[in-house]
């Protein structure tokens, strides 16, 4: 199913580029190298990421080959990519097409590059994994430890300054805005010392969630808040330290779980200060 979905997305992207070539001929070489010379979405994504993450010491071609091989041989990662790019289109009102996240959004770039470093970490290729973590941090200003576990349908909006620690767990359909830290308190040196973020959570810009705490299903964290304790399901918390300011109707939330989460983010953006 993910192969069919990614093929549909790729066809839409190529069609979008064909229209843009007429409007923006100055970008023709950029479109040719990034999109048109590639046979499929994965080849294009691998090229784009390798172009950004390569250095004089490790060539673009070597990184591209690593990314391409891992993506193509792991259908579960492809499924994550499909859900991630769809999440951007559904939840970011500034994005109207699939081409934009693929070419321009560093949150999407950082996330899909992290998925490679996470895979490498899990197969004990830790040196290459940490090298990629460093390059992702340097290039995108997004620091995700390769051991962190991140689900699908994730949106990293704006993304600058996001930090995600080693034992963080993020479930599906989570939205994280810029300058968010999911870190430790510095007091707990156990294996699980970072937060667990449940499905459908929205974390506003500049919020910090620290320690082995859990943010419950569908909860929302206001911009600039500092969370040091567990957050229940379906509540909004704001402040330093974060306190509950709103409780959502669980029945309504349950009925809407299968729908797009765009409306939830839209309301949060204007109501709670993302």
Automatic annotation (TrEMBL):
It is an enzyme of class 2 (transferase). It holds the Pfam family SATase_N. InterPro entries: Hexapep (IPR001451), Hexapep_transf_CS (IPR018357), LbH_SAT (IPR045304), Ser_AcTrfase_N (IPR010493), Ser_AcTrfase_N_sf (IPR042122), Ser_O-AcTrfase (IPR005881), Serine_acetyltransferase (IPR053376), Trimer_LpxA-like_sf (IPR011004). GO terms for molecular function: serine O-acetyltransferase activity. GO terms for cellular component: cytoplasm. Residues 9-113 form the Serine acetyltransferase N-terminal domain. Transmembrane segments: none annotated. Pathway: Amino-acid biosynthesis; L-cysteine biosynthesis; L-cysteine from L-serine: step 1/2. Its EC number is 2.3.1.30. Keywords: Acyltransferase, Amino-acid biosynthesis, Cysteine biosynthesis, Repeat, Transferase. It comes from the Bacteria. It catalyses: L-serine + acetyl-CoA = O-acetyl-L-serine + CoA. The keyword Transport does not apply. CDD domains: LbH_SAT. GO terms for biological process: cysteine biosynthetic process from serine. The keyword Transcription does not apply. Belongs to the transferase hexapeptide repeat family. This is Serine acetyltransferase. It comes from Buchnera aphidicola (Acyrthosiphon lactucae).
């Amino acid at each position: 199913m993910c192969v069919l979905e990614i093929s549909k997305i790729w066809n839409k992207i190529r069609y979008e580029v064909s229209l843009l070539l007429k409007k923006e001929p100055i970008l023709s070489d950029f479109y040719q190298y990034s999109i048109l010379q590639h046979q499929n979405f994965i080849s294009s994504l691998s090229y784009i990421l390798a172009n950004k993450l390569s250095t004089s010491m490790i060539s673009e071609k070597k990184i591209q080959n690593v990314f391409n091989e891992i993506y193509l041989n792991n259908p579960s990662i492809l499924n994550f990519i499909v859900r991630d790019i769809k999440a951007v289109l559904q939840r970011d009102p500034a994005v109207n097409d699939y081409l934009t996240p693929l070419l321009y959004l560093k949150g999407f770039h950082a996330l899909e590059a992290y998925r490679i470093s996470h895979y490498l970490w899990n197969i004990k290729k830790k040196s290459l994994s940490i090298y990629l973590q460093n390059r992702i941090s340097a290039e995108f200003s997004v620091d995700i430890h390769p051991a962190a576990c991140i689900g699908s349908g994730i949106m990293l909006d704006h993304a600058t300054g996001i930090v995600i620690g080693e034992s963080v767990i993020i479930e599906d359909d989570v939205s994280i805005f810029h300058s968010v830290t999911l870190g430790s308190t510095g007091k707990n040196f156990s294996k699980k010392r970072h937060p667990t973020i449940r499905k459908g959570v929205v974390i506003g810009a500049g919020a910090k969630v620290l320690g082995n705490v859990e943010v419950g299903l569908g909860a929302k964290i206001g911009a600039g808040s500092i969370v040091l304790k567990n957050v229940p399901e379906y509540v909004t918390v704001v402040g330093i330290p974060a306190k509950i300011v709103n409780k959502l109707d669980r029945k309504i939330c349950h009925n809407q779980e299968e729908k797009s989460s765009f409306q939830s983010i839209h309301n949060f953006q204007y109501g709670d200060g993302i």
